[in-house]
Amino acid sequence: MEKNKSNANIIIGLILGIIITVTITQLIKKTSSFEKSMNKAASELSEKCPIMVDRQTRLDNVIVMPENTLQYKYALVNWLNDSIDVQTFEKNMKTILLNHVKTSPDLKMYRDNNVTMEYNYRDKQGVFVLKISITSDQYLKE
Closest Cα to residue 129, out of 48, 56, 46, 50? Predict the structure, then answer.
């Protein structure tokens, strides 16, 4: 009787092990596939850079960063760091960027995969001005 119980426990353990292995493998494949898509999209956009977004802002490149982060690097082509009111700029841009991330059909793939969108700004001489991060906690909030 104990031998049958022991065999049953071994069989249950093997079945659970197989289920866990298959589940983990599927998650890895999904992550790997998304990472490839994200890298491809970033690479394709970066190849088109620099791109003037408006009269003040130029997109210089896009790169995939660790921890599921997509980083955009911008230059404020008409501004020097010491002439920018960083607090006002950050407040205004964060509102605009958050709305864009929440609503843009082009960013749906990133929203669906909880990507952090990071926006780095430099002045016309390449001096760092500001980094704004938009996380899934922010853009998935109602």
Answer: 56
Average pLDDT, rounded, for the chain: 84
Q: What is the CATH number of domain 2-139?
A: 3.30.300.250
Cβ proximity of 46 and 63 under 8 Å = yes
Q: Which of 72, 69, 78 is nearest to 60 (CA)?
A: 72
Identify the band that residue 6 occupies on the pLDDT scale cut at 50, 70 and 90: low
pLDDT exceeds cutoff 80 at 19: no
Nearest-angstrom CA–CA distance, 115 and 6: 46
Find how far residue 93's CA is from the centre of its chain.
18
Pick the residue with more confidence: 37 or 31?
37
Cβ(79)–Cβ(123) under 8 Å? Answer: yes
DSSP codes, 86-128: HHHHHHHHHHHHHHHHHH-GGGHHHHHTTPEEEEEEE-TTS-E
